Each structure stands twice: as C-alpha cells, then as structure tokens.
Amino acid sequence: MATFPSIAPNSRLYVPGSLPAVIVTSLSGRATAFRRGNRRIAQTLSLTYEYLTEANMDLIKDHYIGQNGTFEIFFLSAEVWGDFVTPPVPLLSDSAWKYSSEVTITDVSFDRFTVNVDLESVPINTGDLVFDAGLAAASPDRLYLLDAGAAAASPARDYTISPSGAS
Fold first, then answer.
1. Range of the domain at 53
2. Residue 166 and residue 111 in one domain
3. How many structural domains are present in the chain?
4. Furthest CA-CA distance within the chain
5. Which one of 31, 74, 90, 91 is least enclosed by Cβ atoms within 10 Å?
6. What contacts 136, CB < 8 A, 6 or more positions away?
7. What's residue 38's pLDDT?
C-alpha cells in the first residue's frame, strides 16, 4: 500500500468524524440510537500546500494519479501531521485514507504552486478480508485476498480477488 508523500503542509483542517449510528423513531415518537461499530467513520483531512516547488507538486500529483484518483487507499506520512506529538489518527492503524476529491493545483508564481488536497478516512483491518485463501500463509498480512487458491506466502499481495492457482 502506498504512503502519501512526506511533505509538510502549510495548513491542515482535521474533522474527527463520528461512530456509525442509526437513530430509529418508534410510532409513539420515542427515538432510540443503535451504534453500528466501534471505529470512527467520515474523518476528513484538508491539506493546503503553499509555494511548493514543481518537484514537490509533482510528487503529490503523481501520488494522486498512482492511487487512481479517489479509488485506492493509502497511509499518511508523519510529515502530514506536522506539529502533532501524537497524530489524531495513528500513522499505521485501522484507518487508511483516500482522496475525497480531485487535487487542485494553482500556479501562483514562477515555479511555485499551491496544492489543495482533501482526504477521507477508510476503516480497514490489516489483512482485511482474508477469506478462503487456499494455502495462503497468515503472514505477511494481506488486504482483500479472496478465494486465492494455493497463493504463495510471498510476495504480499493487495486486492487479489479470485485467481485460481495464485503464486
């Protein structure tokens, strides 16, 4: 899984999200809430990079393109959290991140750019969805390994969905 480029933003806006819950109202009007999980969802992080060099702008742009836009998930680097001694979301945890919208790039002066990045959290488990994985070993952890029949223990694969005889 990819890691976001190690570039410190000029500003960041973090919204901690909430726990998944459903509120049900009975016919008498009484409301009851049901918690549907124990991990935060809908966490958002908006990053602004000002006066970046073209090389650093290209790192962010290439990462966005490498993640297939808003499709693939990734982890954040420590530099993204900057001054936090303990980041609000641990770097390697049960939450990954994905782009929630396109990266915007503004050319502000000769060879300097402003880049805005909007991210949202995606709850995951390390080794998520190891399901009927044939002879796949438990280590190293995998993501979304499904019916991979006779999969080799290495190299670790992400998103292997049903290739019979994977090796």
1. 11-24+31-123
2. no
3. 2
4. 66
5. 31
6. 130, 142, 145, 148, 151, 152, 153, 166
7. 81
- C-alpha closest to that of 72 among 5, 141, 3: 3
Q: How far is the C-alpha of 40 from the C-alpha of 122, rounded, in Å?
A: 9
Which pLDDT score, from 0 to 100, does residue 39 have? 82
- Note whether 91 and 17 are same-domain residues: yes
Number of residues assigned to the chain:
167
Q: Which amino acid is at 72?
A: E
What pLDDT shows up at residue 68?
95
Mean pLDDT by 10 residues, the chain (167 residues): 91 94 93 88 96 97 96 92 87 86 95 97 66 45 49 54 47
Task: Extract the tokens encoding 28.
Answer: 């008498």
Asked if residue 47 and residue 62 are part of one domain, the reply reads yes
Is residue 113 domain-shared with residue 131, that is, in the same domain?
no
d(CA 123, CA 17): 12
Instruction: Tell me: cis bond preceding 140? Omega within 30 of 0 counts.
Output: yes
Question: What is the pTM (predicted TM-score) of this model?
Answer: 0.71
Give dist(CA 126, CA 27) in Å, integer: 42
Distance from C-alpha of 101 to C-alpha of 38, rounded to nearest angstrom: 26
Euclidean distance between CA atoms 90 and 16, whole angstroms: 13
